[in-house]
């Protein structure tokens, strides 16, 4: 295996471990010592790949910043499906909320790069909703896209507090009310 491949493989192992531990236990609760020990490497090796814990946090969040995959499904089905997926995710029992919001809340550093990544993620999701709303013929889709994003965020927060995946179904129903008020037909609300 080439040196670059070995380096990339180690970097991926570090990121996978950091992802699991940061998301499962919290960014502040997990130190680089714990991550290195979990992998079976020295802190020096970890720091050769990520010069600081902040660099590792940024890489962890950047790795999770993925656009929604394109879909040929009808826009309404995709919008409502987002709430269905959220309900299934919450029901897994390992759901700890939005990793981006968690990072911002834990770090409490407005200038930290994690804040920019979190904002980019939230904007990416809002823009995804907006694109689907525009495909549905909504002329001024931006405000409604923000409302749908807020419903998603609210469902995540409520699920953390209540421990009940059904809050996502309630958010789905609220989304349908907003969509109907915007003139979207509900003839294809279930998939």
Descriptive report:
With 191 residues, the protein is mostly helical. It contains nine helices and no strands. It has helices at residues 3-25, 32-39, 43-49, 53-64, 75-91, 99-107, 113-135, 141-162, 166-181. The mean pLDDT is 94.
- Strand proportion: under 5%
Low-confidence stretches: none
Shape: elongated
Number of helices: 9
The separation of the N and C termini measures 46 Å
How many beta-strand segments?
0
Rg from C-alpha positions?
19 Å
The amount of helix comes to over 70%
What is the average per-residue confidence, as pLDDT, rounded to a whole number? 94
Keywords:
0% strand, single chain, 191 residues, 72% helix, elongated, mainly alpha, 9 helices
Secondary-structure map:
Layout: H1 3-25, H2 32-39, H3 43-49, H4 53-64, H5 75-91, H6 99-107, H7 113-135, H8 141-162, H9 166-181
Provide a brief overview of the structure.
The chain has 191 residues and is mainly alpha-helical. The protein has helices at 3-25, 32-39, 43-49, 53-64, 75-91, 99-107, 113-135, 141-162, 166-181.
